[in-house]
Write a structure and sequence with these properties.
It is a single chain. Strands 21, 22, 23, 24, 25, 28, 29, 30 and 31 form a 9-stranded antiparallel beta sheet that branches. A 6-stranded antiparallel beta sheet has the order 1-6-7-8-10-9. It has 543 residues and is α+β, with helices and mostly antiparallel strands. The protein folds into 4 domains: 185 residues, no CATH class; 70 residues, Methane Monooxygenase Hydroxylase, Chain G, domain 1; 163 residues, no CATH class; 72 residues, SH3 type barrels (Roll), CATH 2.30.30. It has 8 helices and 31 strands. The chain is globular and about 75 Å long.
Length: 543
C-alpha cells in the first residue's frame, strides 16, 4: 500500500518541531517515561499519559513483553500507542505529536538543526486501510489500523559524516523498537508481517490499494480469507499441498474445516474477495507467462524480438529408444526443427516432459522471451527447461527446479520484478526441507544463474524447542538478542543454506541462529556448540 498523505503530514510535523506547547493543528512536543531496568517505569513529565500496560486488555499479547526487551530505554506513549526508545537515543531525537490526525513523528535532532530534515519514522492510527508511501501496517484492531512509515528519500545531512553516521545507527534500531510496540486496546493483532493483507477481515482493500500487489500475492491473499476462517486445503487436487503447507507456516492459522466457501465469509471479506478477484483478472490480462502451447499446436509470436512473428510448434519425435522419456520434445520455428534431446543440459536431462510448453516473457522491461518446458526429471524431480531464441539459434538457457509457470496457479513462477524466476531447492539445514530460490536470467550469456541470497522455506510446520535458545534479532550490526524458551513452538522462515537459520516464534518474533559443524559433521548452534537435533524437536532427514 502507498499512503499519499502521511509523508506530507510527517513533513509538516517536522516543520513544527521548533515550537513548544500545543498548536492549532494539534501538534506538540512531548517527553517520555523512563524505563530504567526494562520493567520499572517512572515519569519525567506531568504531560505524559499513564503507562498503557497498567490495564489488562482482552486478546492483547505484544510480540515481546516489556520485561523481556533486549534493551533498556524510555517508554513513550501517545494516545493508545506505546513504544520504548533505546537509551542510546538519549538527547538525539525529538517527538512531535498531532492529536487531530492521530500520528507522531520522530526526528534526529542533529539533522533537523542543520536543515530541517532528520525524519526517522512516523506512527499513525487510522480508521481505514490507506495508501502507504514507504511503510507497513504494524498492528490493527477491529476498529483501528496502526502504521509505521519511513522517509521515501534521503532525510538526513548526508554530507556531514558524523551526523549521517548517527542517523544510520538510529535507523538500524527501528526494527527492534517495533517489537516493543503496545496498543492499549482489546483484540490487537501484532502479527501483521504474517499476512499478505493484514486486517482483511476488518477493513476493505479497494482496487487502488491492491494495485501494487503482485499476482502471486493476490492469489495467496484470496485464499488467506478462507484460511482465516479455518479452511483445510488438502482436498484441493491442484494446489492443496502448496496452500496447506503455506498456511501451516503461519502462527495464526488454525485449520478446522474442509468446506469453507464464499458464503462463510463476512460482508467485508466478501467485498475483499471480489476486489482481489477482479485485480487477479487484471493481472492475468498482462500475465508474464504469456501463452501455453500444447503438443502439435502452432503459435505465432515474435520470440526473437525482430518485429516479425515466428511460427512456433511443439511436438514429439516419438518414444526415446534408450530411456524412459515419454515425450521426445521437438520445437519448430519457421520450419526449422530443433531436437531438444540433442542439447547439452546443465545438471539435469530430459526424462518425462509434459505435453505442453509455455512461451514466457522473462523481462517486462527488455522483451526477453523463452520457451519453458516442464519435465518430471530424474526420480520425478520437477524441473523446467528454458530455451531462448537468438537469431537462427535456439539456446539452452538452463533448467530451474519446480513447476511454477502455470496459469491460474498460486505461484506464477515470476518475482514480477526484473528477470527473476522462482524455483525450489532442497536443503538439509536444519532438516531436509525445500526452499524457494530465485534464478536471474543473464542476457549476456543467455542462461539462468541462481541468485546467492536468502532462501525462503516452502514448508515449516513448527518444531517445539527442547531447550532455551538465544537468537540474534535482525538489526544489521547491532548486538540485540532474545531468548526463545523451552517448550515454545518455532518455525523456520529462511536460510542462506550455509551459515544461518532464520526462525520465528508464536508471537512472530524473528531471530537468527548462526550455524556451523562440529567434529561429527552435525549442524550446531555456533554460539553454544549444541547440535540442532538437541534444540529442535522432530527433525526429519532424507538420505
Amino acid at each position: 500500500m502507498k499512503r499519499k498523505s502521511v509523508i506530507a503530514m510527517c513533513m509538516c510535523a517536522v516543520l513544527l518541531l521548533s515550537s513548544c506547547g500545543k498548536d492549532n493543528d494539534g501538534s506538540r512536543e512531548r517527553r517520555a517515561k523512563r524505563v530504567t531496568d526494562q520493567s520499572t517505569v517512572t515519569e519525567d513529565s506531568s504531560d505524559v499519559d499513564t503507562i498503557a500496560t497498567k490495564k489488562d486488555y482482552v486478546n492483547n499479547t505484544p510480540r515481546i513483553p516489556r520485561d523481556q526487551l533486549p534493551y533498556s530505554g524510555t517508554e513513550y506513549t501517545f494516545e493508545d500507542i506505546s513504544i520504548v526508545i533505546p537509551d542510546s537515543w538519549d538527547g538525539k531525537y525529538t517527538i512531535t505529536e498531532n492529536d487531530k490526525n492521530h500520528y507522531f513523528t520522530v526526528v534526529q535532532n542533529a539533522s533537523y538543526n542543520v536543515d530541517g530534515s532528520g525524519l526517522l519514522f512516523c506512527i499513525c492510527r487510522t480508521e481505514n486501510m490507506d495508501f502507504l508511501n514507504n511503510g507497513s501496517v504494524i498492528a490493527y484492531t477491529p476498529e483501528y489500523v496502526y502504521t509505521i512509515e519511513f522517509p521515501s528519500d534521503v532525510n538526513y545531512v548526508y554530507d556531514d559524516d558524523q551526523i549521517s553516521a548517527e542517523y544510520m545507527e538510529m535507523f538500524k534500531d527501528i526494527n527492534v523498537m517495533t517489537y516493543s510496540l503496545y496498543i492499549a486496546e482489546d483484540d490487537v493483532n501484532y502479527k501483521t508481517n504474517e499476512y499478505i493483507l493484514p486486517g482483511s477481515e476488518c477493513f476493505v482493500y479497494d482496487s487502488d490499494l491492491l494495485c501494487d500487489y503482485t499476482y502471486n500475492d493476490l492469489m495467496l491473499a484470496q485464499q488467506e480469507l478462507f484460511a482465516r476462517n479455518g479452511k483445510i486445503f488438502t482436498d484441493d487436487p491442484e494446489a492443496g499441498y502448496f496452500l496447506q503447507s503455506y498456511f501451516e507456516g503461519k502462527t495464526w492459522y488454525k485449520g478446522q474445516k474442509n468446506d469453507v466457501s464464499i458464503d462463510d465469509l463476512s460482508d467485508i471479506e466478501k467485498t475483499n474477495y471480489e476486489n482481489i478477484t477482479q485485480k487477479i483478472e487484471d493481472k492475468k490480462a498482462d500475465a508474464r507467462y504469456c501463452q501455453i502451447l500444447y503438443l502439435d499446436e502452432h503459435m505465432s509470436m515474435d520470440v526473437d524480438c525482430d518485429d516479425i512473428d515466428e511460427d512456433i510448434s511443439y511436438y514429439s519425435a516419438g518414444p526415446e529408444y534408450d530411456g524412459d522419456l515419454y515425450i521426445h520434445p521437438m520445437i519448430s520455428i519457421d520450419g526449422t526443427e530443433y531436437d531438444l534431446g540433442d542439447y547439452p543440459h546443465y545438471e539435469e536431462y530430459f526424462d518425462d516432459c509434459a505435453d505442453h510448453c509455455f512461451i514466457v516473457d522473462l523481462n517486462p522491461y527488455n522483451s526477453v522471451y523463452a520457451i519453458a518446458i516442464p519435465d518430471y526429471g530424474p526420480s520425478d524431480d520437477l524441473v523446467t527447461h528454458f530455451f531462448v531464441v537468438k537469431g537462427d539459434e535456439l539456446i539452452n538457457a538452463g533448467c530451474i527446479p519446480g513447476f511454477f509457470i502455470q496459469p491460474d496457479s498460486y505461484l506464477s513462477g515470476f518475482s514480477d520484478y526484473g528477470s527473476s524466476v522462482i524455483g525450489e531447492k532442497r536443503v538439509d539445514i536444519p532438516e531436509t526441507s525445500w526452499v524457494y530460490a530465485h534464478y536471474y536470467y543473464d542476457d549476456d550469456n543467455y542462461r539462468f544463474e541462481e541468485s546467492e541470497c536468502q532462501y525462503q522455506y516452502v514448508l515449516s510446520s513448527g518444531h517445539e524447542l527442547l531447550q532455551d535458545v538465544t537468537v540474534s534479532l535482525p538489526n544489521d550490526d547491532k548486538d540485540y538478542t532474545y531468548t526463545f524458551k523451552k517448550g515454545e513452538k518455532v518455525y523456520y522462515t529462511a536460510t542462506d543454506i550455509d551459515s544461518y537459520l532464520e526462525v520465528k516464534n508464536e508471537n512472530d518474533v524473528v531471530g537468527y541462529i548462526y550455524i556451523g559443524k562440529n567434529d561429527n559433521y552435525q549442524d550446531v548452534d555456533i554460539n553454544t556448540g549444541t547440535p540442532l537435533t538437541e534444540i529442535f524437536e522432530g527433525l526429519m532427514f532424507v538420505d
